[in-house]
Amino acid sequence: GTGTNNDLYINQAIVFIEDAIQYRSINHRVDSKSLWLYRWYYSRTCQWLLSLTITIILALAFIEKPSSLTVTSDVRYRLPAWNPPCGLTESIELLCFLVFMADVSVKSYLIGWEEFWKNRWLMAYILTLIVSLTDWIVSLSFFCTENVRIRRILRPFFLLQNSSMMKKTLKSINSTLPEMASVVLLLAVHLSLFTMFAMLLFARTKDGQQDKEWVGYFRNLPDSLTSLLVLLTTANNPDVMIPAYSKNRAYSVFFILFTVLGNLFLMNLLTAIIYNQFRGYLLKSVQSSLFRRRLGIRAAFEVLSSLKETPANAQQSYVSVGALLQVLQKVEMDSRCKQAITRSLKMCSCDQLSAAQFQKLFEELDKDAIKQHPPSPEYQSHFMQKMQFAFGHPYFGYLGNVVALANIVSICVVLVMDADKQPSERDDFFLGAINCFFILYYLLEMLLKIVALGLKRYLSYPSNRFDGLLTVILLVLEIATFAVYGFPHPGWRPEFMGLLSLWDMVRLVNMLIVFRFLRIIPNMKFMALVVTTLLDLVKNLRAFAGILVVVFYAFAITGIMLFKGAVVPLGNTRATSTRLLFCHFRVQLVLYLKEKCDFVALFGHFQAEVICCLLHLLSVNLICRWAKIYFVAWWLISSVIWVNLFVALLLENFIHKWDRRCHREPLSDIEYQRTVELMFRDVLEEPTEEELMEKLHQHPHLQLCR
Amino acid sequence: GTGTNNDLYINQAIVFIEDAIQYRSINHRVDSKSLWLYRWYYSRTCQWLLSLTITIILALAFIEKPSSLTVTSDVRYRLPAWNPPCGLTESIELLCFLVFMADVSVKSYLIGWEEFWKNRWLMAYILTLIVSLTDWIVSLSFFCTENVRIRRILRPFFLLQNSSMMKKTLKSINSTLPEMASVVLLLAVHLSLFTMFAMLLFARTKDGQQDKEWVGYFRNLPDSLTSLLVLLTTANNPDVMIPAYSKNRAYSVFFILFTVLGNLFLMNLLTAIIYNQFRGYLLKSVQSSLFRRRLGIRAAFEVLSSLKETPANAQQSYVSVGALLQVLQKVEMDSRCKQAITRSLKMCSCDQLSAAQFQKLFEELDKDAIKQHPPSPEYQSHFMQKMQFAFGHPYFGYLGNVVALANIVSICVVLVMDADKQPSERDDFFLGAINCFFILYYLLEMLLKIVALGLKRYLSYPSNRFDGLLTVILLVLEIATFAVYGFPHPGWRPEFMGLLSLWDMVRLVNMLIVFRFLRIIPNMKFMALVVTTLLDLVKNLRAFAGILVVVFYAFAITGIMLFKGAVVPLGNTRATSTRLLFCHFRVQLVLYLKEKCDFVALFGHFQAEVICCLLHLLSVNLICRWAKIYFVAWWLISSVIWVNLFVALLLENFIHKWDRRCHREPLSDIEYQRTVELMFRDVLEEPTEEELMEKLHQHPHLQLCR
């Protein structure tokens, strides 16, 4: 009947508007039951459950067998890690797989069969699930004794497929690959030519004294190649050159030429290429988000205009205000936006909305959220008004900053004075006393500010929330310290007790004060710009970080599988090889990595230099060939490519920010909640009516009347 | 009289046109004698003499006393360096100073007194000369025994002031300084906060076993600061973290946070800021060059139009063609341009030239020089024609590339086979034989190509010149080898003799073949793009490189003065300090640097990593506080700032090239000789008539009639 039809249209409009708000694609089934399923699937609970499942399956690696989560990483002191019994992690895994299977079925059903066959990500999802389940069955039938577990390497895929931003970023990286490959090829040519050259230059001679260079670095082809590859990472930079240089200074020309060409030119060319490819990346992604939003709104308009209650008009379609109000009530959206839209609907005297008016109503979604701070309390008493003026004044805030600086300086002085004293000689009275004094001041400052501004207004500023939280923590810690050790007096020396003694806590208090000092940043103009750029960057970087996590996870698991059993006990290695003394700590690190490849170690060392250090070890032949390939691949991906991507993104963000800085007038009291979309608003192109309608007519499930 | 006046105008026009060609300023004296002096000063001989003087005074450091130019840099084997007698280098210096004094007087006279007082560079030049001469007199009166020689640090100034490009670049760098300073300040805040944090975190405990971290890196404030500064350069990256990490994994969070914030964010922000400032740098510099050129041409037009022979015209001024032809004959310029201008003058039927026509004539200067290769010889014989077709065909060139590749591969195979053999076991017959074969092929290839293309056409291609030169060198070396050792036979083993034996030369031959392989690059599309970008970059980088040389020179001389007498004999240091074993080679390097600070070592190690390695040593307290400050300053300037400038320039160049690549059609046979000016031609703005005339009226010496 007409009623059911109308209900369907209303529901469709609700879902389309929600799609628009979330920048989702509208290409899904639109019948009543599917719509219900769709809303349920994208409900917060459901998505939260899915994220939780992904977190759980990824976190499993920390407690699974070859990994170890212990406090110390030192093999000598470490207690044996807890080994979960066979079947425990496996049953958790099975639960996760069941959730993923439900997820993939719902997703496939919702987009429909035709779309399903075009969607490679869904196919890969199903394939991954099949492989994982097979591997799981194999694992259980061997009672968890088998070594190769493919499903672990596949796990990060579940994280990847769940984020549309990550998929988009991956596509973008993918399109840069051909040009990156060219530069990498050029690097390879550079490397191989210079390797040959080096082998001819540093050939073995009769005089054993003279060919240190040959013995150390260019003994044979793989050695030479490794030496120069490591030189490209600049890890063995002076070492590799010294024997030849001390023989004849002219040899340095070879190394300088190699480094300048390889490091300065080719490596930076990679940065240039990646930046060039990513220049438009942010803009393009924001542009496509805008298109999705406009499309969702337009689709909602189209379905609402086919409602029977609307008088059929051949020329132009209209939507009744009543229907829209009905839809708005049921849509899940930010309450501020909803109120604003309802208000403008009521202010508009018309009864019917054209497409343009409809679109215009929803532009509220794109607008800056202007944050209004609640007003200060109005006091009757003259004294209170004076207090309010005094302690609500910015100068009071500056005084607080000066006190925080004084606190930092005094801690610094104490640290310098105590630096060389034995712990038994040290007198902690002074540190305790100044802590006590400053914490009292902070408490007073907080209370006075609350009185002056009122609690609500005080809490509406993020800097105050940060301050207040730290002050409360400091106070609690201080009171606890006094309760245990009594008040500070000369010769006061709180003793250690338990895992985290209260004295540790007092030190913690001092550290927190260091952080409190950061509140001066917004007061300095350039620093504020830099910090906001960095914060923006962090928002935009989430997709990149996700991909990095995926790559790391896969690498860590591969590392565990590759280097299991390749462990040489630490003592033996040191005894047999005199070379180890050369860089003892680094060797220890590599041994740890080989032994456990644990996550903290991997995450902790993701920057270029650690990998360089590992590669440096390769040059002294400590690890086998597999390890070489593994580490070179790791270096290329995590250090060369990822760091360059990061630099490209930073350049893009900073230059946009910098260009805009001159245009925008800083508004003193109103804080804008800026999003990436807003940053680009003045350069974005609005999609045309034709583009929107063409896209709508291509919708696989929605049959528009006209 | 009118004749003298006319001669003066003609001479002025000549000089203005020459100024326009060389992009020089026209603000100099314009009377007859000054013009003669000006042309003499900017003549090739004079400028060449000036450059020679600058080179000599800079090169003096290589033979002066504390420096040493020996073959080996190893203290044990090195012969004592030659010490020039007192007075030798000093008299050379005096000669140089005399030339500089002449230079500064001529320059000051030519721009006139008024301009002189505004020109800070000239003032600084005179000041430098006065200080240098005073220092020279002091030096001689002490019979060269004094240690502090200020004039040596001032020497690079002479290089700086002689290049207008370098002065312009320096100005540009100077304008970036405030923003760089902000980031450096941010880095300093970051560093000091984390230092305090680290000192609180890694305090001394009672358990001596547990505070390795404290002993090694955070013993007191300077130590902690150095440790973290070095961590910022990533030189001690895993080492500094290992003791804490093996105690408790959670400590790694501190180091990761520090590195991510400092290295990844703040350091790259510096790149972003510098790139942002330099984005318009190239364009702006080319734009101002264009303005100078147009201004010179316009000035020439104005003086020529005041020639008495021209009929006075109130409305518009004209220049007679005859006068221009007279000027053109005497102007020193590229003969191709001169011919082209004369030709178009003759083709133009008019007798008088307006300003626009005059300007248009000289646009020939901005045009691409189209290089026409001379034609191939035309042979009568049918056989010769066939040969010409076969060996002039590109496929013959490809065959040559394949043969070069085969040569490389065969050398590679021999190297791999000989890698582990003792020199006494090795048989050089095979290498000798393949060398012989391939060199014969290269000779044949060269001769056939010369026959097919004719000698002139053959030599007109740079790739052929490169090929031909290498082939001739290879041939000479091979003949010399045969003359000494006879033809290769099994068991052939040329012996060593003298400094560079002939057998060394055979190895050199093989190295040259490696270079010959590079001729394949222009055949690959993307590689050609990359290589041309790099070559362009080298052109644009000359000014930067010059500034780098200036900075290095000053640093090297300061280093010599600072670390003279601070040398610890190598043996002793090794015996007393067990830490030296830790990175023995690096210590050696630092000792060399401290001992000699010689140029090769400095130039050889200008990349980030070596300085990092030096800073790494700082963290183990090997060098005194002065050295710390010295090296930190060096690291900041040469590694952080210069490398970032380089990256900025590379990005700028590459992105321009890349954008243009799509627009331009590659022309097969015509090679453009591209200059920076041409690269930007389509974005440059032509200066307007008003701007030019305003500038002309501001000329301090030229009184225009109107």
UniProtKB/TrEMBL annotation, chains A, B:
One of the protein's GO biological processes: endocytosis involved in viral entry into host cell
Domain of life, source organism: Eukaryota
GO terms of molecular function: calcium channel activity; intracellularly phosphatidylinositol-3,5-bisphosphate-gated monatomic cation channel activity; ligand-gated sodium channel activity; voltage-gated channel activity
Keywords: Calcium, Calcium channel, Calcium transport, Endosome, Glycoprotein, Ion channel, Ion transport, Lysosome, Membrane, Repeat, Transmembrane, Transmembrane helix, Transport, Voltage-gated channel
GO CC annotations, alphabetized: late endosome membrane; lysosomal membrane; monoatomic ion channel complex
Ion transport domain residues: 55-278, 397-654
Keyword Transferase: no
Reaction equation(s) it catalyzes: Na(+)(in) = Na(+)(out); Ca(2+)(in) = Ca(2+)(out)
The family this protein is said to belong to: Belongs to the calcium channel alpha-1 subunit (TC 1.A.1.11) family. Two pore calcium channel subfamily.
Protein name in the entry: Two pore channel protein 2
The species this protein was found in: Sagittarius serpentarius (Secretary bird)
Lineage: Eukaryota, Metazoa, Chordata, Craniata, Vertebrata
Gene (UniProt): Tpcn2_2
